[in-house]
């Protein structure tokens, strides 16, 4: 408010028309509107503690610019009043609004131009600490330092020996040397003191600790020696590049760059071959420089051994160095003692250096092809074994095909050999990324299907999965065999075969499908394969056997209960006719249900199910009671016999009661049902009873009384045709005693 009053007072004193009441009256509403609309927000600075100095400075700058814009609007308004004192506020207001829009557009344009630069500068700010293993910026910086180091290593000997540095191109060499020195200095002061290091298992990120650690290291001493300004001797001895020889002490950064670059490359052996080739070329480069120096010392063209001065100096000397180090021969004989000594030293160093580089090259190539050599050795041993025991050619071809496909698909024969070298944490991280998505699709291990299932148990299962490759046409599992494994299709397809002849394709399972999971929790012999599963093409399957799962579940009892419950539900859903079967308890669900009663027995019984069996048992009890009562009345003690079924299910029913009205008649009784019931006796005997079908089903069955000399024999025997049985009914007459 004070600022507004002060500006108003200044406007009145500077405005010559302020004495005019009409003009002042016309200007007051407009000034009041501008003051209330523009000055009030600016005249009330925010009252808040200073949290960030940079942000506080930006806010102050914004307030200052807003005040300047307000003053600019006021001056525009005053100038408009002076030019047209009779103008009304309605005519002056659009001018003020238009000027406000123009200034706002200019401010936005200025801010849009400055904001990207500010953000860019923020991104360029170096962090307080740098992780040398994961930071790609540091790797990029090391590549720049390596370029500067190679420049010094290659061109300093060249400039010292060969006359390629002349007074006409001296300034170009100076500029390049200055750039390399700047890179060295920047690395020494800003980059290396920020590198993190390990101490006692902890990563140190404190700035003071990082600087102190770098100053106490050998690398700091080498970096200081490499940046020492011996170039000042140019002023005394002239421009001689030999004073820059200390720049080649920056070799630690060169080897560090090689190490980090190899760690991130997919095929590091390619870079190793290139690097070894570079070592060989640099050795030849140094030898060429030494040969030119020796020729210059003896005199160019003075003897046949020295350089004759014709052609390109560097190429001729480099050619001589190649022929000398590789000992090709055909070189001129040295003439003087100096030449002989130089040639001997050159030969010895050449043999040593060249043999070392060749050996290193062999190691690099051998390491690159180590897996392939191991694959070839295993395949050769297998083929030799098959030839020794005269294995058929068909089997040998399938074995060769398996080796070739396994190597082509995963570049190794067994993935577990590679993972065994890693710690358990790394193994788990790799297997979770590769196989967790597949194992989570199994109904038996789904989190939604088994809430509360321990995730660590799933991780232990992932570590135990084994990869198996099947060839086209290989049987993964056969019908009728005991299921002991669960299969997960990692790559390829398998076909489920069925039908009458077992060749009909029921379904084709693709990558990510799972089968055989119920067999993991089934009891011994409780779950058999119901169909043949054949590999359709090459298939890579992950397997988990029952023994491994049981070893894991020992440590997870709660998860074991949940899995058993889920397995019971899955078996109930897959088993046929589960609606009429009462639920089993305990581990009884793992055993198959009892086979259904044959149709012939049901026809003989006259009814099916437990009702017919109960009726037969009731009739048997009544018959036995009547026989015992009749014998007691006759005071004759007789022991009823039992018929025991041993091999074929033969049923014999003897009736010793006979009534006089049935004499002379032979009746063939038609039976339509039999039943078997085990009796709990010490001899574990099994007896089955058949009864005559009474015409009056609703009337209580009464067996005839008396004695008879006829016996009714009903027997069941297997037929010659598979799956059928023959029912035989015979009536025999007892022998007279």
UniProtKB/TrEMBL annotation:
Composition-biased stretches (Basic and acidic residues): 1-14, 29-42, 653-683
GO CC annotation terms, alphabetical: intracellular cyclic nucleotide activated cation channel complex; photoreceptor outer segment; plasma membrane
One Pfam short name: cNMP_binding
Reactions listed under catalytic activity: NH4(+)(in) = NH4(+)(out); Na(+)(in) = Na(+)(out); Li(+)(in) = Li(+)(out); Ca(2+)(in) = Ca(2+)(out)
Record-annotated Cyclic nucleotide-binding domain positions: 454-553
Listed Polar residues bias regions: 81-104
Positions of transmembrane segments: 137-158, 273-294
Molecular-function GO terms, alphabetical: cGMP binding; intracellularly cAMP-activated cation channel activity; intracellularly cGMP-activated cation channel activity; protein-containing complex binding
SUPFAM superfamilies in the record: cAMP-binding domain-like, Voltage-gated potassium channels
Stored Gene3D superfamilies: 1.10.287.70, Helix hairpin bin, Jelly Rolls
Record bears the keyword Secreted: no
Location of region: Disordered: 1-49, 77-111, 630-705
Keywords for this protein: Calcium, cGMP, cGMP-binding, Ion channel, Ion transport, Ligand-gated ion channel, Membrane, Nucleotide-binding, Sensory transduction, Transmembrane, Transmembrane helix, Transport, Vision
UniProt-annotated location(s): Membrane
Membrane topology recorded in Swiss-Prot or TrEMBL: Multi-pass membrane protein
Predominant location category: membrane
GO BP field: calcium ion transport; visual perception
Family annotation (CDD domains): CAP_ED
InterPro entries: CNG_cation_channel, cNMP-bd_CS, cNMP-bd_dom, cNMP-bd_dom_sf, Ion_trans_dom, RmlC-like_jellyroll
Protein's UniProt name: Cyclic nucleotide-gated cation channel beta-3
């Amino acid at each position: 408010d004070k600022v507004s009053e002060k500006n108003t007072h200044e406007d009145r004193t500077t405005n010559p028309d302020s004495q005019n009441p009409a003009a002042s009256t016309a200007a007051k509403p407009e000034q009041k509107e501008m003051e209330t609309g523009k000055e009030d927000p600016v005249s009330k600075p925010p009252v808040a503690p200073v949290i960030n100095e940079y942000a506080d400075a930006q806010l102050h700058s914004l307030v200052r610019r807003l005040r300047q814009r307000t003053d600019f609007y006021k001056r525009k308004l005053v100038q408009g009043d002076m030019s047209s004192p009779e103008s009304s506020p309605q005519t002056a207001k659009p001018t003020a609004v238009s000027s406000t829009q123009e200034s706002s557009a200019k401010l936005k344009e200025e801010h849009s131009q400055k904001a990207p630069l500010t953000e860019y500068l923020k991104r360029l700010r170096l962090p307080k600490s740098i992780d040398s293993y994961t930071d790609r910026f540091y790797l990029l910086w090391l590549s720049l330092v390596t370029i500067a180091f190679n420049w010094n290593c290659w061109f300093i000997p060249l400039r010292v020996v060969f006359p390629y540095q002349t007074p006409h191109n001296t300034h170009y060499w100076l500029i390049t040397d200055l750039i390399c020195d700047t890179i060295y200095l920047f690395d020494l002061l800003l980059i290396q003191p920020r590198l993190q290091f390990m101490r006692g298992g902890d990563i140190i990120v404190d700035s003071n600790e990082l600087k102190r650690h770098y100053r106490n290291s050998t690398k700091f001493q080498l970096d200081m020696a490499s940046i020492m300004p011996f170039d000042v001797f140019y002023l005394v001895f002239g421009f001689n590049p030999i004073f820059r020889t200390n720049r080649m002490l920056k070799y630690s950064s060169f080897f560090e760059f090689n190490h980090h670059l190899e760690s991130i490359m997919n095929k590091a052996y390619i870079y190793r071959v290139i690097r070894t080739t570079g070592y060989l070329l640099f050795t030849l480069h140094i030898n060429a420089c030494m040969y030119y120096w020796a020729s210059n010392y003896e005199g160019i063209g003075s003897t046949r051994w020295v350089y004759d001065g014709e052609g390109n100096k560097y190429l001729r000397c480099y050619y001589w160095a190649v022929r000398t180090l590789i000992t090709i021969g055909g070189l001129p004989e040295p003439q003087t003692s100096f030449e002989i000594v130089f040639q001997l030293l050159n030969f010895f160093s050449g043999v040593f250096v060249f043999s070392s580089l060749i050996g290193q090259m062999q190691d690099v190539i051998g390491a690159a092809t180590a897996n392939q050599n191991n694959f070839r050795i295993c395949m050769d041993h297998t083929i030799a074994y098959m030839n020794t025991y005269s294995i058929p050619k068909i089997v040998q071809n399938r074995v060769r095909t398996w080796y070739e496909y396994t190597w082509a698909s995963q570049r190794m024969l067994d993935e577990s050999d590679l993972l065994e070298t890693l710690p358990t944490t790394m193994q788990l991280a790799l297997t979770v990324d590769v196989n967790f998505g597949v194992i989570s699709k199994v109904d038996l291990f789904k989190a939604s299907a088994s809430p509360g299932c321990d995730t660590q148990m799933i991780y232990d299962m992932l570590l135990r999965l084994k990869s198996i490759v099947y060839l086209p046409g290989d049987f993964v599992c056969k019908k009728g065999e005991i299921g002991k494994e669960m299969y997960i299709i990692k790559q390829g397809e398998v076909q489920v075969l069925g039908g009458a002849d077992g060749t009909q394709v029921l379904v084709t399972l693709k990558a990510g499908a799972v089968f055989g999971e119920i067999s993991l929790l089934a009891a011994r012999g409780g779950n058999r394969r119901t169909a043949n599963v054949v590999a359709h093409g090459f298939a890579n399957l992950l397997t988990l056997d029952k023994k491994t799962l049981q070893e894991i579940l020992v440590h997870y009892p709660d998860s074991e209960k949940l899995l058993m419950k889920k397995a019971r539900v899955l078996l109930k859903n897959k088993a046929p006719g589960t609606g009429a079967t009462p639920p089993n308890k305990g581990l009884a669900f793992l055993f198959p249900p009892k086979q259904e009663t044959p149709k012939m027995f049901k026809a003989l019984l006259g009814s099916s199910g437990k009702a017919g069996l109960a009726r037969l048992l009731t009739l048997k009890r009544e018959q036995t009671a009547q026989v015992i009562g009749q014998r007691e009345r006759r005071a004759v003690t007789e022991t009823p016999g039992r018929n025991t079924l041993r091999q074929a299910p033969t049923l014999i029913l003897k009736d010793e009661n006979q009534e006089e009205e049935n004499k002379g008649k032979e009746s063939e009784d038609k039976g339509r049902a039999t039943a078997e019931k085990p009796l709990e006796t010490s001899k574990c005997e099994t007896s089955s009873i058949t009864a005559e079908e009474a015409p009056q089903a609703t009337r209580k069955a009464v067996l005839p009384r008396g004695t008879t000399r006829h016996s009714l024999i009903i027997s069941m025997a297997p037929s010659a045709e598979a799956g059928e049985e023959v029912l035989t009914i015979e009536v025999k007459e007892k022998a007279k005693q």
